C-alpha cells in the first residue's frame, strides 16, 4: 500500500475558504494526510492545529510566520498554500527553496514575473505543482470537451461568450465588499476582474481549445467610483476604481478556432439578465451554455445549463466541492493527472498580459 502524501497547509485557519472548502476536499481523500498547519499568528496556528488534530485523529504540528518552518518539516512532503494573492510570493518561495511539491491558489503570484520565478524554481528542483484552477474539473466542462473530442458537432469553428460578474457579488464595479477592498483597489495585487474572473475562464478555454495564437482587446472603467459596503450592505466609504470592469477580446487559437468574449463587471443581476451566454459552433452542430443564477459566469464554481443542438443535456454536477476534490484526486495520480500546473498558470498570465497590452495600445498582440 502506498503511503499517503503528507501535507503541510499554509493559511488553514479555523474559518474561511481554506477551512470550509479547500482543506475538507483534500483531507477526505485517503491519499493525503495532514501533518502540519501554518498561519500568521501563534494563536490562530494553535487553534487550527487543535481542530485538525481532532478531526484527523493524529497530531498536527502548528507553525506561524515564515513558511520556511513548515517547508523544513521532514514530516511534510507537499505544501498547500492558500493565502491572498499579494502574499503568494513570500509564502511560496521558501517552499520552493526547500524542494517541496506544492499547491498554490490562482493567480499563483501577483503577476507574470512572480509566476515565472515560481515555474523556474519548480523546474530546477524537479517539483510537482498544482494550481487552484478547478474549472477544468467541472462536470459540464468535461462533458463539453467530450462532445467536441467525439466529433459530434464536427470541426469547431468558433467560441463566443458574454459573461457577467454581477454587482451583488461585491467584487468589481459599483459595489465592493469590505473584505475584498484591500486587493480590489490595488491594481498590482493580481485580483482584478481580468486576473480572477477572466483568468479562471482562460484556463477552461485553453484546456478545451489549446493555446491562443493572437488577440485584440478593449477595456473600460464604466464604474470609476465604488461604494465599499459591510456585510449588511451599509456604505462605509467610496473609492476610485483603477482596473477595468468591462473587457472584451477577439482572436484565434493555434488550431484556427475563432474566439470572442465580452465580460461585464458591476452590472446588477436584474431579472432575466443572463449571467452566462457561451456558444461553441461546429460545422455539424452547436453547444450552448447559459444560466441566470448568481455567479454562473464562474464556470469553475457553478455548472451552467448545457444544450447540444438546442436540447438540454443532463449532467450530474458535483458542484464546487466536487471540482476541488477532483483536482486533488488528479494530483494524487502522479504524472498521469490532468490538473492545472504552474506552467498552465504561466500561460494564462501571458494571455492576461496580452489582453492588457492590446487594450492599452489598441493593437493586435501575437502570443
TrEMBL record:
A GO molecular function held by the record: nucleotide binding
Domain Gal80p-like C-terminal as annotated: residue spans: 140-290
InterPro entries, sorted: Gal80p-like_C (IPR055080), Gfo/Idh/MocA-like_OxRdtase_N (IPR000683), Gfo/Idh/MocA_oxidoreduct (IPR051317), NAD(P)-bd_dom_sf (IPR036291)
Native organism: Guyanagaster necrorhizus
Protein name: NAD-binding Rossmann fold oxidoreductase
Recorded superkingdom: Eukaryota
Pfam families xrefs: Gal80p_C-like, GFO_IDH_MocA
Gene3D superfamilies membership: Dihydrodipicolinate Reductase, domain 2, NAD(P)-binding Rossmann-like Domain
Domain Gfo/Idh/MocA-like oxidoreductase N-terminal: 5-132
Amino acid at each position: 500500500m502506498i503511503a499517503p502524501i503528507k501535507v503541510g497547509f499554509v493559511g488553514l485557519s479555523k474559518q474561511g475558504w481554506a477551512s470550509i472548502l479547500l482543506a475538507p476536499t483534500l483531507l477526505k481523500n485517503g491519499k493525503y494526510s495532514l501533518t502540519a498547519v501554518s498561519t500568521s499568528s501563534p494563536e490562530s496556528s494553535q487553534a487550527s492545529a487543535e481542530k485538525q488534530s481532532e478531526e484527523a485523529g493524529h497530531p498536527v504540528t502548528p507553525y506561524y510566520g515564515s513558511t520556511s518552518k513548515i517547508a523544513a518539516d521532514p514530516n511534510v512532503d507537499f505544501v498547500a498554500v492558500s493565502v491572498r494573492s499579494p502574499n503568494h510570493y513570500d509564502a511560496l518561495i521558501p517552499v520552493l527553496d526547500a524542494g517541496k511539491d506544492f499547491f498554490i491558489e490562482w493567480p499563483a503570484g501577483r503577476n507574470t514575473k512572480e509566476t515565472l520565478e515560481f515555474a523556474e524554481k519548480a523546474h530546477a528542483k524537479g517539483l510537482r505543482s498544482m494550481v487552484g484552477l478547478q474549472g477544468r474539473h467541472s462536470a459540464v466542462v468535461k462533458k463539453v470537451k467530450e462532445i467536441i473530442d467525439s466529433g459530434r458537432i464536427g470541426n469547431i469553428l468558433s467560441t463566443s461568450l458574454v459573461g457577467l460578474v454581477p454587482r451583488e457579488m461585491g467584487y468589481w464595479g459599483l459595489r465592493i465588499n469590505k473584505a475584498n477592498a484591500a486587493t480590489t483597489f490595488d491594481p498590482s495585487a493580481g485580483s482584478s476582474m481580468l486576473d480572477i474572473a477572466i483568468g479562471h475562464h482562460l484556463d477552461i478555454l485553453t484546456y478545451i481549445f489549446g493555446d491562443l495564437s493572437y488577440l485584440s482587446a478593449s477595456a473600460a472603467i464604466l464604474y470609476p467610483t465604488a461604494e465599499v459596503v459591510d456585510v449588511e450592505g451599509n456604505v462605509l466609504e467610496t473609492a476610485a476604481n483603477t482596473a477595468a470592469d468591462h473587457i472584451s477580446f477577439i482572436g484565434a487559437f493555434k488550431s484556427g478556432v475563432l474566439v470572442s468574449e465580452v465580460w461585464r463587471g458591476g452590472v446588477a443581476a436584474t431579472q432575466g439578465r443572463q449571467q452566462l451566454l457561451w456558444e461553441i459552433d461546429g460545422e455539424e452542430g452547436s453547444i450552448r451554455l447559459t444560466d441566470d443564477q448568481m455567479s454562473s459566469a464562474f464556470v469553475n464554481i457553478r455548472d451552467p445549463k448545457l444544450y447540444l443542438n438546442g436540447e438540454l443535456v443532463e449532467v450530474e454536477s458535483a458542484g464546487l466541492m466536487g471540482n476541488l476534490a477532483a483536482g486533488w484526486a488528479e494530483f494524487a495520480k502522479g504524472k498521469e493527472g490532468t490538473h492545472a500546473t504552474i506552467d498552465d498558470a504561466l500561460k494564462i498570465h501571458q494571455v492576461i498580459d496580452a489582453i492588457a497590452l492590446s487594450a492599452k495600445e489598441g493593437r493586435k498582440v501575437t502570443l
